């Protein structure tokens, strides 16, 4: 009788082993499926002091964990089978090529190389699976410490900027591409005042530090200062806006709020500014008050920033040096410092503390447009960019950032919670994330088909003193949102 060659024998053994492994996996799946219902039934049958909603969430999470580890177990069996088959094939190939058995050292080298590749694949799969499990817990945690409280709906186009008044009564201000700025009651979400003095997109809004004055920048190449007087309505009970299940749901434009009715039509309308600042030759993209409120700074697409005297409307300084359009400007809360950001990938620090010397420092660290740069109370500046990074800088050492935050989407106008030093990052991908100054991620604001922004988030603003909402965001879905962030719980989890 003819005898089988070594390679044929090896192939048959490999085939039989593969078949036995396949049967083993099917038996494992069958037995696991039979057991999946037991823990839930046993737990539901026991007496528990936990609320039913919490127990349901826990059962769902543990079910996800069980399914993830079951998948890992099956993939592990498959990978081990591949390792065994590969080792057998290497041994068979060695006999055919060399006509004799490979030395143990050569076979071990080839096998270990292939095994290491498969081991790396196993580690990658395990890491991806466990990340899903961890993110499930983080999702639940974020919902517990970050609650949507109120939505402010009334603009006819995207909202570029949001700001909170620094004097009583505390109101919310929004600047929109619909050529208007609106003031809102934070508690009720009612529109209180409409400013309609611009003939272009209103790109930013900032409140005077001590008077009921607002400063708006516009695409009509001007910045306006206008006075407002509001009477706050009686607050209504806040509805429960909490959600259950996954908070990451894809939304389309048709899911945006129905804005057929103009809720701002009943508001008192201001059409004439107190002062108009006119010196730019391009879009005025941002404006801010210097400390004390006697001067204001504007940033424009004409590559300059201008410093004005508020009382006389006269141009005091024209700040030149940027190579491309400016995107933002910000002033220090307690010192005469201004920071301007630009599409030229830099931001510049302008020092007006000494009237005789106006120094400028250039910060280079981003690889794309710097969308905003803001001060903290101390000697730090935080910059955000379209290169998907946020960098924290020390004003005393400008050569390199002291912390870098890397994200998965371009970053728009950031804001820092001064007291707690928490950075709010609004993204192009509709997310809003919270980080501390050292670059540690603290939370992501919940977003679903029922709450959160449905298009690009343009800006964020903290309000540390308001008892109801302490963070506001706005986006190109034509709405602003007020959030309540439980900061002590957030920092405790860190």
Write structural notes for this entry.
By secondary structure, the protein is of the alpha+beta class. The protein has a domain at 145-228 and 261-491: Methylamine Dehydrogenase, Chain H, CATH 2.130.10. 27% of the residues lie in helices and 32% in strands. The strands form seven sheets. The protein has a five-stranded mixed β-sheet with strand order 2-3-4-5-9, with no helix packed on it. A four-stranded antiparallel β-sheet has the order 1-29-28-27. Strand 6 and strand 7 (213-218) form a beta hairpin. Helix 1 packs antiparallel against helix 3 (52-98) and helix 3 (52-98) runs antiparallel to helix 4. It is globular and about 90 Å long. It starts with 5 loop residues before the first helix and ends with a helix. Mean pLDDT is 82; it is low at 1-5, 17-38, 96-111, 130-140 and 239-255. This is WD repeat-containing protein 37. Residues 1-50, 237-265 are annotated as: Disordered. Residues 245-263 have a biased composition (Acidic residues).
